[in-house]
Amino acid sequence: MTRHSATGGDPVVAQGVVDKREAILRAAGKVFAERGYHATGISDIARELGAGHGTFYRYFKNKEDIARSVVSRALGQVMDALADEAPGSCQSVAQYREQVRRIGHKLFDLVVAEPALCRILFYDAIAIDRAEPDLAGKAMEAAAQYTAAFIHNGQDRGFLRRDLDAHVVGLAVNGMIVTGAVRLLHARDPDAMRDPWIRTVETLMFDGLGSR
Predict the structure, then answer these.
(1) Which one of 3, 36, 175, 176 has the lowest number of neighbouring Cβ atoms within 10 Å?
(2) How far apart are the first and last CA of the chain?
(3) Would you state the pLDDT for residue 211?
(4) Conformation bin of residue 60: beta by default, left when phi > 0, alpha when psi is -120 to 50
(5) To the nearest whole number, what is the mean pLDDT of the chain?
(6) Tell me: the pLDDT tens digits for 19-76?
(7) How many other CB atoms sit within 10 Å of the CB of residue 34?
């Protein structure tokens, strides 16, 4: 039987490669989240997948290679969750505040629904990949740029102070979000954190801490 490459042949074969890679990524993500990056071996991932080592090495070079792919997949899932939130869409402060609340709830729902994904991003991304030590830094920078686009819209429309650096504000806002998400992973009653945390982030963004 003739074999076709995944890049230039039978589309059924190509789809099969995509499906197998996705299955490996799901299995690896589960094991990384449970055991941690350093404690996970290829044999652990293969056992979770129910396949031999050979299957793994047909699709990934080594553990670092799959770990990078797992982190990229997790970041993609975060962006997919926010895909319908356009940074420049809000034209009033009421719309802007509502958008902030919506994003907060979407991120909250993602952490609750996909704790393994979040453990990988918050705990393992920094430990992964000696060959690409800036992996976590690049992810943080991309997230900051994304949030900064929303901050710029608020500044341009006069909802937020214009004298602050939007990029730095984006990093600060993301820091609040990540801290909340990490706490959420260990909360006995996640729903009890939802409204107070989202409301506090919103208040800090729009009202600050100074007395009026």
Answers:
(1) 3
(2) 77
(3) 53
(4) beta
(5) 83
(6) 888 888 989 988 988 888 888 888 999 889 888 778 788 888 888 888 888 888 888 8
(7) 13
pTM higher than 0.90, yes or no?
A: no
79 with 44: CB under 8 angstroms?
no
Give me the mean pLDDT over the 154-177 stretch.
91
Question: What's the rounded Cα separation, in Å, for the pair 119 and 173?
Answer: 20
**What digits encode the pLDDT tens for the residues 65-84?**
888 888 888 888 888 888 89
Half-sphere exposure of 161 (CA within 13 A, CB side): 10
DSSP state of 4: -
Burial state string for 113-146 with b = 16 or more CB within 10 A and e = fewer than 16: ebbbbbbbbbebbeebbeeeeebbeebbeebbeb
Structure tokens given for 124: 């393992």
The burial of 14, by beta-carbon neighbours within 10 Å (0-12 exposed, 13-18 middle, 19 or more buried), is given as middle
CA distance 87 to 151: 8
